[in-house]
Amino acid sequence: MTVGARSAICSSIAARPHEETAVARDIDFDLIKEAKELASRCYDGKNHHVAAAARAPDGRTVVGMSVSHFLGGPCAEVVIIGSAAAQRIYELTTMVVVGLAGRVLIPPCGRCRQALFDYFPSMDILIGDPPAVIPIAELLPLPYRRWLTDPRGVSSMGGNHEDPFAGR
Ligand SMILES: [Zn+2]
Q: Which residues belong to any copy of the CMP/dCMP-type deaminase domain (predicted)?
């Protein structure tokens, strides 16, 4: 896929009916800049392809690079979840994911959408050029909920969850 084709995909995502949301919310351009600078600094074309940066409610940022490995290395978004916990940050409000050595804002993959939704269900994702703010819940309509199949899953899947069976 060409760079132009990828940009077109990101642009088409940004042009979806999320624009009302994008207009109503501020774009965190500092976070975008940080993610792009990280990508341009740390993209190595081999093991670390995608950069991500996330904003905590107190203004701190958490950054991460993807880890390529044949066992299924984690995407940058998942690296951030662990890195945030290492700083005792358990809430993130906004995330931006950057590909192509910092040239494009890309949407999280399906696996990351589920993980981000589970950990930070109110998180916004910045996607496209120009960037749009898209809530993670809109990126993952009808999300999988483990407790719908196994109530014990509430405590074992990670993330911020209310136990729907509490008190029953
Ligand atoms: Zn991913």
A: 26-147
What is the CA(52)–ligand 1 centre distance, in A? 10
Q: State pTM to two decimals.
A: 0.78
According to the 3-state scheme, what is the secondary structure of 22-40? HHHCCCCHHHHHHHHHHHH
Strands 104-105 and 94-99: antiparallel
Distance 162 CA to ligand 1 centre (A): 24
Q: Catalytic residue at 37?
A: no
- Give the CATH number, domain containing residue 40: 3.40.140.10
Task: Give domain status of residue 161, yes or no.
Answer: no
**Domain containing 114: what range?**
3-156
19, 20, 34, 77: which one is catalytic?
77
